[in-house]
Write a structure and sequence with these properties.
With 393 residues, the protein is an alpha/beta fold. It has helices at 4-11, 15-30, 49-61, 64-68, 77-91, 105-117, 133-140, 158-164, 187-204, 264-278, 285-293, 302-317, 340-348, 374-390; strands spanning 36-37, 100-103, 123-128, 144-149, 169-175, 209-214, 235-240, 253-257, 330-334, 352-353, 355-356, 365-369. The strands form 3 sheets. A 7-stranded mixed sheet has the order 2-8-7-6-5-3-4, with helices on both faces. The radius of gyration is 21 Å and the shape is globular. The protein binds pyridoxal-5'-phosphate (PLP). Pyridoxal-5'-phosphate (PLP) is lined by residues 41, 105-107, 131, 175, 179, 213, 215, 240, 242, 248, 253.
Length: 393
Amino acid sequence: MVNENMKKLGQERSAIREIFEYGNARANEIGRENVFDFSLGNPNVPAPDCVREEIEKLLVKVPAQRLHGYTSAAGAPEVRNAVADYIRAAFGVSARADLIYMTCGAAASLSIVLHALCEEGDEFVIVTPCFPEYRVFIEAAGGRVTEARANEAFHLDLAALDRAVGTRTKGVLINSPNNPTGVVYGEEEICALAELLKRKSAEKGAPVVLIADEPYRELTYGARVPYLPKYYADTIVCYSFSKSLSLAGERIGYISVSPACAGAEDLFAAVCGAGRSLGYVCAPALFQRVCAACLGKSSSLRAYEENRDLLYNALTEYGFSCIRPDGAFYLFIKSPEEDAAAFCARAKAYELLLVPSDSFGIKGYVRISYCVSKQMIERALPAFLKLANEYKK
Ligand code: PLP
């Protein structure tokens, strides 16, 4: 009757969404202020003023029929031009409007790119822990997933990547600033990764494509994020405005195929074909234009940084162990008991909703999403302290 794989995916909601839905139901029972929901990466900082200003300007300036009508499948030409101009100016690399494809956020960007690249027998390497949907997207595109564990500090483990990347590897997918660890990969490790991929491509006789998943690019607290096409020619950037402009629900982002990619035009044609076959054509028209006017801007990061400091300092003082995140808005703490799901169940008794690391591809950790109000964190801290004390008994 139906595709069993799709039915299974639909029935098994992601662990994160499951907890989020539980939080909503619980809020109805005991009041929103009594539930400490740290599950979802839904930005709580308002979009910067330029978003509202541009929406208002567009509503007045552009006739409704044009404003809300279809754009070209790959996006409005003036938007693609603006994105390419921005990339050239901001990162000092070449970029071409005819290699930019506007999409519905990073999720669509990744799905399109994976479908564009994947041929029978292809493998894609992911660095674990990682965003759980990578596996879903890769398998839906017909690819096989190969995992390379990050090192102890959650940075790239070059030896693990060396083992994982083989002659069947079509692409390596990395994400920095990282969800769920908050780690930002530095220039040295990116250079080492580029060298490794060049060597692997030479051994394979075809490029191993680097797929850069960048929904958190601007969300750093001082750390610099190397722009990957600068270091490795065969790079495709999957960018999203979901987090940088707090527009997660508007579903807007872009794919940028680096002009330095081998066969860049063919690659882009495949991106267009994948977009067409998946029905991801003509990304939301109003928000394409809004984002074109807000390139390089971001929501205020101060609140996230304050939340990071507040939570990190308190939780480490209570005895939890975790690395101090340099970017994104997640804290990845070590579970004080081996079974992270059991720890999350204990946390739930204090109305603390945390996500166990199993769905991120490793065991024994818990993700705490701190894109929430500072007041909620302050209210939650006594609960975290009680939870910590349980493990000291
Ligand atoms: N990639 C990572 C690492 C994410 O954390 C997310 C969302 O949380 C996505 C991709 C999907 O982002 P978008 O909302 O732009 O589709």
